[in-house]
Amino acid sequence: MGKVNISSQPQLVKTRDRIREVVALARAEGKRIGLVPTMGALHEGHLSLVVACKAECDVTVVSVFVNQAQFAAGEDFERYPRELAADMEVLGRLGAEWVFAPGQEEMYSDDFSTYVQPPSVADPWEGRCRVNHFRGVATVVLKLMNIIPADTAYFGQKDYQQAVVIRRMVEDLNLPIRLVVCPIVRDQDGLAMSSRNAYLTDSQRVQAKALSQSLARAAELVADGERDAATVTANMRRVVAVAGITRVDYIALVHPETLEEVRTIGGPTVALIAAYVGDTRLIDNRVLELVC
Ligand code: AMP
Q: Helix, strand or coil for residue 286?
């Protein structure tokens, strides 16, 4: 394997049995399997995970599944973009071998009732703002890992807390899989790529830059020697307020593993932000490097 199939599309698989079968065959041949879980509407951020997977694995399986269980009532499950044909096209160009795109009923039968109780790092931040979000994420990721027994799974730092939650789950439940977390891919103006950016109007798109700008401000302050977290977050709040963003779910500086809020910056720290631009909820984060 390892060859790039430049023009052909990946194989589309819709059933658990079939993807299990093809992955088992590849494993039996000694091939390294990589899994890239996504909800589709693929952009450069997703594609960076596919590229990382292709570089390390013999067979790349991309899952495309809009997982209702991780959306709270009233969130954007219904209108979430679904673009499987375009996704297949771009995955073909990257040489992904398999796309697993099951229907809802293939993943959640009518009598489905078993969920993963996520680890406590799921409690703050996104967990507090989005009811049962990480329960849904942990459940679908565990299901995908069971259906597609991969050697390595690829996630993005864009969803920082999600990566921490999944790492904890993999350790706690002794799942035989290696995790790779890839850096955030941004547009030229700094906006972190997201399928939800498609919801933004032109003027909202301009406003949305304030999220990454607030993180850049935090990085700048810390690099200049600021160690008081409250001063840094106050500056971040000012940046988003000046851009006209009034609905902020949270802005916080946290420990990179425990996700507990830090008061004094004395070691590796992650700045987190979640805010609404219009009706669109966006998240972003940045690791703040201490310059000693
Ligand atoms: P999603 O389709 O939003 O569930 O995302 C699927 C995977 O792509 C997750 O591991 C995300 O963290 C990752 N991802 C989404 N956006 C980006 C980005 N801008 N840069 C890097 N990874 C990303």
A: strand
Q: Rounded to the nearest whole angstrom, what is the distance from the C-alpha of residue 159 to the centroid of ligand 1?
A: 7
Per-residue pLDDT at 292 exceeds 70? no
Separation of alpha carbons 142 and 133, rounded Å: 14
**Mean pLDDT value across the chain:** 96
Q: How many CA atoms lie within 13 A of 66 on its CB side?
A: 17
Instruction: Give the pLDDT confidence score for residue 5 in this predicted structure.
Output: 45
CA nearest neighbour of 97 among 46, 62, 148: 62
| Ligand 1 binding pocket mutation candidate from 38, 42, 44, 46 (most atoms within 8 A of CB) | 46
Q: With bands split at pLDDT 50, 70 and 90, how would you rate the model's confidence at 290? A: confident
Confirm whether 46 is a catalytic residue: yes
Parallel/antiparallel/unpaired status of strands 247-254 and 33-38: unpaired
CB 154 within 8 A of CB 49: yes
Burial label, 109 (beta-carbon count in 10 A; 0-12, 13-18, 19+)? exposed
* pTM as predicted: 0.96
Cβ < 6 A, ligand 1 pocket: 38-39, 45-46, 48-49, 155-156, 158-159, 182, 184-185, 192-195
